[in-house]
Amino acid sequence: MRVAILGCGYVGLELGRRLAADHDVVGVRRSKDGVERIDAAGFSGVQADVTDADALEAVPDADAVVFAASSGGRGAEAAREVYVDGLTTAIDHFCGRADQPDRVVYTSSTGVYGDHGGDWVDESTPIEPTTPKTEVLAEAERIALERSAEYGAEGTVARYAGLYGPDRYRLSRYVDGPVTEGYLNMIHRDDAAGAVGYLLESDRARGEAMNVVDDEPVDKWAFADWLAEQCEEPEPQKRTIEDRLAAEDLSETVERRLRTSKRVSNERLRELGYEFEYPTFREGYRAAVDAYLGDGDREGE
């Protein structure tokens, strides 16, 4: 299988590394440094902007295109440029080739579900984005599924929960506190990459949106207390959402995000046969805790 990973960053590098042993993989990054990281991960890199159709000419034909580009944490307009305009450009470009892909995978976010008051959601739950950025992500999901189909390709949407893993454990946020109430839905980087790789190699979830989240959404306060215990630190200070809103001058978007609460089910992904390397945060944070206890590395790097 020939796979092109557009926006080959935190998850894409791991996905490419895993697939490269048995498949022809190319990663695409905008910067020279990004391409060097792809080369260091053991597969081919191409320097190109995923929003530029002319630049994408340098990318070889592929059987599957994985769109994993990031807007870099910027606002809704930057997100639209990457997720909507960039994804549309990529689908039109690759699916318009004589040798077109038959699969397009778009990496989205469980944020598109919006607020469900802490209740469980799954792929049958209607999406209700509550912020301008998650509205953009929802629009991009429709493009991935519908525009791909217009070309005869099949789209898959991988809805990632909160990513963590090497370089992104952020221990200090929870060990030091204060920790605001709510639920955490998480996925380790290795499972984020592993799940997409599994869906490609097993030829599953065509035409579907799929939650990519671990087995156990967890209360933030309970998670922080567990982490503090593991790191041999005192329990951090807690605060309610109302406490935080009263103490800080937050934007309307941040307030909406704080008030968004849900628990995301991975039952469908489990049904398709994916086996998690890190089924819960307990296994996933073990390396970070060991590093913290060993040399005081607060980020578990």
Automatic annotation (TrEMBL):
Entry EC number(s): 1.1.1.290
Superkingdom of source: Archaea
UniProt entry keywords in alphabetical sequence: Oxidoreductase
Uppermost EC category: oxidoreductase
Pfam families in UniProt: Epimerase
GO MF annotation terms: 4-phosphoerythronate dehydrogenase activity
Domain NAD-dependent epimerase/dehydratase, chain residue ranges per copy: 6-169
Protein name: SDR family oxidoreductase
Record lineage: Archaea, Methanobacteriati, Methanobacteriota, Stenosarchaea group, Halobacteria
